[in-house]
Each structure stands twice: as C-alpha cells, then as structure tokens.
Amino acid sequence: ALWITWRIPAFAFGTAGMIILIVSEIKSKQVSQWVDQQLHRGRVTYLFLFLFYLILNSHLLLPGYPVTSDGLGAVHLAWQFKQYLQTATLPLWSNASWLGYPFTQAGFAISTIIVALIDFAIRDLFLSTKLTLAAFHALSGVTIFVFVRRISQSAWAGLTAGLAYTISYFHFYNEVALGR
Q: Can you give the pTM of this predicted structure?
C-alpha cells in the first residue's frame, strides 16, 4: 500500500521538523510568537485550529473500514438514509431487525444524515464516514477552544484545552467506540 511506503519518510520528516521547531523556539521564541498571532486573527483563528486539530486526528482517515459507533452499522444507516433521499420515500422505515420499525426509533445520529449528504458528492460511503468523523473531532476541539477562551479570557488556555480534548483517548473512545 502506498501509505505504508510513505510512513517512514513522513515520520523522519516530521521528527526533523519538530527538532527544527524546538531549536527555533529555544533560540528566538519564533514558534510561540507565530502561534500567538494565529490565535488573535479573528475568524482565521477558527480555520487555523480546525486544520490543526484535523491534522492531529488524521489517523481517522487511514485506509480500511471506518470504525464508527457500532462498526459498519453506522455506515449501513447512512447508506439507507441516502437511499431514502434518492427515492424520496416516506415514511422512513427500516426492516433491519424485528418486523420493521420507524427509521429513527432505535437511535439515529445527526452524523448519519451528514454522512449521507456528503456521500452524494464523494460517492464513497466509507470515506464520507471518515471525513465526517474527523471533521467532528476537529470541530469539537474548536468548540472547546472558544468555550475555554471565553471563560478564561486566554487564547493559550483555549488552545491547550482544545488540544487536550481533541487528542484525548476518552474523546476518541466516546465518539468512535460508543458513538456519542
């Protein structure tokens, strides 16, 4: 696979980049000054943080099946909802188990609707699911940033809180394994 052959050079490049950033920060505080500028640029700050948190959670975009709430069951719900949208069939009814039930009765996440809508453009249900999951991770980090910055009046505290929330295992487990 192509991503495996690029893993070692990417790791080496990332490690060299981190060393350069650390040396630059120790010598002249360039990194912290640049980050401070990014944190005070208004709406551009949100885009910067979204991309930053998205890169930190890029493992959600790796090849293979997406790992979402109930495994491939969430992908199935998105596929089924997309079929409903394409055929404009009402009521939304599922025969996935029992003798059939209203589609939203057994729990239905808004992410399923978003995955179905994104899939109209991408036409790859697994990739649509992965992109939605990664975007939700990044957006939750930006939301925590805004919340903590507003409470503490410190952009650096917001950055730290958003970073901690975005990369914490608890958040990953809740969103991916439990689907919350």
A: 0.71
List the structure tokens of 76: 């199935």
User: Using H for helix, E for strand and C for coil, what is the string for the chain?
Assistant: CHHHHCHHHHHHHHHHHHHHHHHHHHHHCHHHHHHHHHCCCCHHHHHHHHHHHHHHCHHHHCCCCCCCCCCHHHHHHHHHHHHHHHHCCCCCEECCCCCCEECCCCCCCHHHHHHHHHHHHHCCHHHHHHHHHHHHHHHHHHHHHHHHHHHHCCHHHHHHHHHHHHHCHHHHHHHHHCCC
Amino acid symbol at 82: K
**What pLDDT, in 10s, does the model give residues 73-88?**
567 777 777 888 888 7
Distance CA 23, CA 26 (A): 5
Q: How confident is the model at residue 105, as a pLDDT?
A: 63
